[in-house]
Amino acid sequence: MIKLIFFISDLLSHPKHPDGPSRWFNKNGDLQAKGSYKGGKQDGAWEVYHESGHLAFKGNYKDGERDGPWDIYYENGRRKIKGNSKEGKPDGRFERYYENGQLWERLTYKDGEPDGLFEKFYDSGRLSTKGHYQDGKLDGFWEYYYENGKLKRRGSFKDRERDGLWEFFDEKGQLKDRRTF
């Protein structure tokens, strides 16, 4: 993944490109990236490929910034990240996946900050964490679960800080402790 990030970064920082479609190839002649430029900036649909030739990134750009839906893929072809951007900032639903294809986490962004429901899962598919963000901060009621599905702890946040009553449970789901913050 680091190679892919540097490759995309190299494309973005390359000297001014002529308008129109562009393609990059590796030393073996295999396609590594394709997309278009407008006014010297990335614009329109872009695709970047792993060295193996499998799709690594697919998304849209406007004026050199990610804009619209985009996806990042593992080398095995399974989706790693599905997101949406507006003027280069995350915006809307964002999902990350384990390499086995199972959903890892799901959240919503607004103006580049997490905002709304957040869910995180174990690689087995069971829920690990559920809560809310408000303007990029943990806010409201949160629940955390053991991998066996039993409740681990629950309570509220306000401006990223624990707030009010929190309850803690053992792996069998029995209440262990209560604390007020």
What is the gist of this entry?
By secondary structure, the chain is mainly beta.
- Number of spatially distinct domains: 2
Low-confidence stretches: 1-7
Radius of gyration: 21 Å
User: What does the oligomeric state look like here?
Assistant: single chain
Count of individual beta strands: 17
What portion of residues belong to β-strands?
Answer: over 45%
Broad shape: elongated
Helix content: under 10%
Helix and strand element order: HEEEEEEEEEEEEEEEEE
Distance between the termini: 40 Å
User: Tell me, what is the CATH class of the largest domain?
Assistant: Alpha Beta
Name the average pLDDT: 91
Q: Please name the CATH architecture of the largest domain.
A: Alpha-Beta Complex
Q: Remind me, CATH topology of the largest domain?
A: Outer Surface Protein A, domain 3
Largest sheet: 17 strands, antiparallel
The secondary structure category is mainly beta
Number of helices: 1
